[in-house]
Amino acid sequence: EIVVNDVNFVRKCISAESSQGDLWGRLICTNFKVSFIPQGPPPKQKSQLSHLLLGQHDISLTCLEQVVTVNDTRGKRKVLGSNQKLKFNPTELILYCKDLRVIRFCFDEAGPESAKKVCLAIAHYSHPADLHLLFGFEYQGLRYHKGDLVNGSTPRGGIQTPVFDRPSDWDREIKRTGASGWRVCSINEKYAISDSLPEYIVVPVSLTDQDVKQHSPSFSDGRVPQWCWNHRNGSALVRMAGPADPLTQRKTEQKIFTAITKSHPQRREVTLSDLDKSLPNIQDIQSAFVKARQICTLDPFEESEERWLSSIENSRWLEYVRTFLKLSTEIVYNLDGKNVSVILLEEEDRDLNCVVSSLVQLMLDPHYRSLNGFQSLVQKEWVMAGHRFLDRCNHLKKNDSKESPLFTLFLDCVWQMTNQYPAAFEFTEFYLTVLSDSMWIPLFSTFLFNSSKQCAQLLQDFSKNKAIPQGEDHTVIFPPVWKWSQQFSTRDQTLFNNPMYVGKGAASVQNGEVKSFQRSKKAFSSTVRISSTSQRNGLKGEEEPLQRRGSLVSELKADFSPVKDESPSERFFRDWFSHPADQQGVLIPLVLPSHVVLWKLFFLRWVPEVCIPQGGPATVYHKVSQLVDQIEMLQGKLRQYKGASPRSTPVPSPSGPSSDQRRMYFKASSPDDPPTTPNILNSSFPFNPVGNLCPRGVQGTPISKFLNGAKTWLSTETLANDTF
């Protein structure tokens, strides 16, 4: 990493209203990041999440969305790009970041020429002319020659995420899902038939390599239909690109469909789902995200708080999240309820298919709800399937029309499911958020390229330039993001662990009895019998509780109560929602507008105005983590007692496992210590909003304006019936 330019006596603005609390220091532009080094002793760290590559005041150059210079005295403002000239001396620099931060620097005391040079340097280095100019290539090349890269090293007990760049990874997936009618095909080795497909794909057993090669020209970019996943009943999930030549397509499709039908044990016909007709396009998704980002990070809350939720809804972001979740549940019904194979059709098979195929597998297969399983899902359905991360993330900032947050949309959909079924996922929303942030750190191969071929070609050129032997493994030279030890300490990685996760074979207590989380497999029936003492979506009781207007219970009752002329799909969903959710079985999210909510940690974590000190989900996470840590310590002591020989007296360790070996971030407190809530906890935990631009110097959204204009409610009944 080299310092390109720097300037001293810079003020980092904390509030837009006054300079109270602002930080003074040195602003540096390197070939990797924008860094601000405060003068004097560093303030007490309010967040314990420590990034190994980026400091609290650092921003990766790839993370910069816009570089804006301002001259207050002349009333000028300019958005800077690469190799642009600046005709005025800037008094301010505002950095708009892709992770939704807004950072403002003032040059009150800084030299005008130095300030101008550092602004131009930041703009230039954040707009690389070529992918090879990204810092990651230089960094990984030097690390290789220093011997810092170790193949296969992982901090999580040696479990390595499969990359799906070799036949053995696909073979294991076929065996795991019981897909006996499918096989690994190597016809695309050296990218012989398609530039965007992986070298190894899974095809029906009845198709020969020659058949696949013959059919490939009929599909866009030679992307023949490829297998994604198999249900235990034999139905398969397949993804397919649109026709290259519509005139000859029908004959080819019929042969492919026949082969997929033969792969099903009962020879069931396939169902085709055209995603281009059912879902918003990438431009609509980008537009909705930009509007939601504007509302959450740029618009003053004081001016919009009375209609803030309406503004979020009008952005259509949540509507699109619901749309993707709803369509995915319909695919789940076909695979699980109707026992038919489904082909996901998209013109290029590289955007919408990635989202839907991943969500469907997440709903159907508990393996993908584990941390390692989820990472393998992203690797399989996004990275190796040829999602255009380089274009959709706009890393080179060359073509805004191709930019679209498909992967962010997917992570939001996943978060909606974790929010509704918190015990079904091994990972936390902290993990999903840092995974999103990792897209903007150009040191990992996962989110940098448009396809595995582009990755292989660029790494080959890179290896030649850096004198790296040809036989060296690419994952060693340019590692995937899944080696989290490159970004976080072992302790910080424990923030990924969900303390409420119910793993395979775990037990729960229902009605006073310990029961396993296994739903009995039964034939689908059109009749549903529910006893008065049964649980309905986690609510139990002999009498129907009094329902508040608009409550979850009343909405579920309206949606899933038996009706006369309901369709088979409606019966399927009503049957599913009438039983307690099996955390290790099929999971179907609720998709009404009241069920799909804003992902606050992602959208609002950098906004000091809405940060709740000592509040938010982190406070619950803290308590539950301590309880789980205490339980695991007691279990460890019990194992020591059980494992001791009959003649010996076991002496359990007073502290249990060492701190480094324990799974939870928050450790159980001693019985002698009073229960306390750490000062670092707030609704933005483990992130720190201090340092991000705040329109007002107040933490917590003030309600004075709302109360001043509010009506006087005479009773709680009046309050309940009032319309906001």
UniProtKB/TrEMBL annotation:
Highest taxon in the source lineage: Eukaryota
Domain spans labelled Myotubularin phosphatase: 164-603
PROSITE patterns tied to this protein: PPASE_MYOTUBULARIN (PS51339)
InterPro entries per record: MTMR12-like_C, Myotubularin, Myotubularin-like_Pase_dom, PH-like_dom_sf, Prot-tyrosine_phosphatase-like
Region described as Disordered: 641-682
Family as reported in the entry's similarity comment: Belongs to the protein-tyrosine phosphatase family. Non-receptor class myotubularin subfamily.
Protein name: Myotubularin- protein 10
Species whose genome carries this gene: Ameca splendens
Lineage: Eukaryota, Metazoa, Chordata, Craniata, Vertebrata
